[in-house]
Write a structure and sequence with these properties.
This protein is mostly helical. It has a domain at 279-493. Helix content is 77%, strand content 2%. The chain has 20 helices and two strands. Helix 7 packs across helix 10 (243-269) and helix 14 crosses helix 20. The longest helix has 32 residues, at 329-360. The protein is globular and about 70 Å long. The chain starts with 6 loop residues before the first helix and ends with a helix. The mean pLDDT is 86.
Amino acid sequence: MSLATHLPALQVVLPLLAAPLTVLLRRPGMAFVVAVAASWCALAIAVALAIQVHRSGAISYAIGNWPVPIGIEYRVDALSSLLLVLVSGIASVVLPYARGSIEREIPAPQHYLFYTMFLLCMTGLLGISITGDAFNIFVFLEISSLSTYVLIALGRDRRALVAAYQYLIMGTIGATFIVVGIGLLYMMTGTLNLGDMGRRVAGVSGTRPVLAALAFLTVGVSLKLALFPLHQWLPNAYAYAPSAVSAFVAATATKVAVYVLLRFYFSVFGESQVFGRLPMEQMMLVLALAGMFAASTVAIFQTDLKRLFAYSSVAQIGYIILGLSFDSATGLTATIVHLFNHAVTKGAIFMLLGGVVASVGGVTLLRVHGLARLMPWTSAGIVLAGLSLIGVPGTAGFVSKWYLILAALEKGQWWLVFLIVLSSLLAVAYVWRFVEAAYFREPRKDIVPAPLPASMALPTAVLLAMVVIFGLDTTYTVDPAAKAAEMLLGGSR
């Protein structure tokens, strides 16, 4: 058998083996090299798998050659291949950036531990995206969550410990709900393989244990993806974590949680049970709109830019769930496209803010007065990414909102089009808070910006370029997303 046959296993095994290696090496420089090499190899594998799926269809890999559904299956299809590319791609960009960032934010003796936890977090997220086993989703979810708690706690602000503890408590509650839901499904179907489980659930659909499993999984995963009003852990976690951690987690963790929700809804329970027998469409719509408006309104009144854009993330998750609530191919396409577009946009923003922290020592609105004169390129990058959050044409965010509007028009819901546009105006308001401080205020005389190393500037520029590229060319986002949406709907009808 060729090496290419084992790419699904290598996708998870490489970063998993690299994590303890960084502990053994202990030297930050060597740990950095190992982490970057692992992330770039993971990206190459993810791209190779995506190309193979595009050409030949879904890939099924049986761990230990145990036949499915007896053994554990790794499955790569149109949707999971997108998530693999997203997670490994963001990691491969953030890790080179992280070296310069953590030198200013994390004590030197802890640098190798940062790379260890980062690799474990990436391993967990890649594992969630590729596994075809329900219990393995829980296991990988806990690997990524436990490492994220440590990464957040590495922040130099003592409030990072409180944020990590808060995330730990809420994450544990969410994980408990998820494992209870999986247990109920196993009790009713006798299998943990997602594909086999989906076939067997069809025979017991509508029973109380299955409906209870749906409820437990919905609440548990909603906690992980920070769906309003279960988002309380997110603002502090993003605000007080090291900048590289904020960038990586904001761009990947909640997106993978959305993937888990999509996978259970459409591959296991089936569209007819989720949206046909239960008022899930209306419930998701209400929660999505509440998140879009409430979180955006709170963001307007923040004085710390990391907290401001953290609340913005809660609002953007509202847009992602709004697409899901339409229960249509166009709506699902919008959801999946926004997973990608928001990931690159928010990743770029937090990397830019990390540059501001490294240069001027903080990201409060008072501290960034006149920043456009001190750091013109960084300020312009934040504005560009902000325009993507608003949904201005030519940026990645516009594509997502355009498909949301198309989905609303397909349903004949003109009032939703109005609300989508209105919520975008709230995004204008909170992005303007930065523009006003950076461009219309005098620079503080007590701040002398330090030059940023190229290792921080170049990776940030890569994500900013993607914000524009994905806004102008939808070949690599909309087309695969539409294919993934058709797959989900086709498999559940």
